[in-house]
Amino acid sequence: MRSMLFVPGDSPRKFEKASEGRADALIIDLEDSVVTEKKDEARKLTLAMLKGRRGPHQLYVRVNALDTGMTLADLAAVMPGAPDGIVLPKSRGGDDVRQVATWLEAFEAAAGITVGTTRIVCVATETAGSIFGLGTYKDCSPRLAGLMWGAEDLSASLGATEKASGGVFHSPYRLARDLCLMAAAAAEVAPIDTVYTDIDNLTGLEQETRAARRDGFSAKALIHPKHVDIVNAAFEPTEAERNWAEKVIAAFASNPNSGTLRLDGMMIDKPHLRAAKKILGQP
Q1: Could you give the CA distance from residue 209 to residue 193 in angstroms, rounded to a whole number?
Q2: Where does substrate bind (predicted)?
Q3: Phi then psi for 220, rounded to 5 degrees?
């Protein structure tokens, strides 16, 4: 999964348009993009979108945060539509995942969904306190599929006046990004890069996405359909990377009892083999 496109939960028209694109996943949003007065309507529309699904996209639903008191109502409304996963905003750590997982088990059973199949992706850096919970996601639940870092809400939590300048995040946001990446790697789930908000700056989007892939992120969240193809392409291995990976795998296949090898004048070992398999999508 490379691209996760947010779609407002109260807009079937935007959902229809997003469904025509090539995002790997659509996140139907019940949180920030829906005003309080329209939450009930958005829940009903979201259920209809889930039941009317078409195409290869995975469908996630971003519910409202646990501290709003609306999460249970969101889940009760949308789980009969069997979403592939739930996105939990403002997550504080593993305990929040365990709480949502417990609720999901009950809703799955009630809806006739195989228990344990609904995944959870957490937006894990939206408050100052959440940074200190990043180390608690490992082994918190087999449902956990990814950790996404977010900058927009974090700036409000910090009381910051600016997140970035010249297309480069300031240090508090780079810290949140990097720690989220490491937490996801430690928990063995997908690290997901934050949204790119300069909608028409497609060059900046490509640069940020390539930097995310370079550092280890495997997917990016999006807020506009025209970002999808750029992000998908940026996460594809280059020809040079594919050639290197194939040579590494072939070298170890020819020398199965060797822990280290010499390839093109460089020493390679088993971490290089794991990296090569990851580039080619091999287990």
Answers
A1: 8
A2: 62, 126
A3: -135, 140
pLDDT greater than 90 at residue 237? no
Q: Measured between alpha carbons, how far is 91 from 104 in angstroms, rounded to an integer?
A: 16
Residue 148 to residue 184: CA distance in whole angstroms: 9
The sign of the CA dihedral 110, 116, 118, 123 is: positive
Q: Are 54 and 63 in contact (CB under 8 A)?
A: no
pTM of the model: 0.90
pLDDT in tens, 99-155: 999 999 999 999 999 999 999 999 999 999 999 999 999 999 999 999 999 998 999
C-alpha dist (Å) from residue 264 to 247, 268, 279: 10, 10, 19
Element (H, E) at 267: strand 266-269
**Binding site listing for substrate:** 62, 126
**Domain-by-domain residue ranges, the chain?**
3-236, 240-280
Tell me the CATH class for 3-236.
alpha beta
Distance of alpha carbon 38 from alpha carbon 11, whole angstroms: 11
Rg (Cα) of the chain, in Å, rounded?
A: 20
CA gap 5, 139 in Å, rounded: 27
Sequence-ordered list of residues with C-beta below 8 angstroms from that of 261, at least 6 positions apart, any chain: 251, 252, 255, 267, 268, 269
Cα–chain center distance at 136: 18
10 Å Cβ neighbour count for 98?
15
Helix H or strand E encompassing 50: helix 39-51
**pLDDT confidence of residue 97:** 98
For 119, the 3-state DSSP assignment is strand
Binding residues: 62, 126, 153
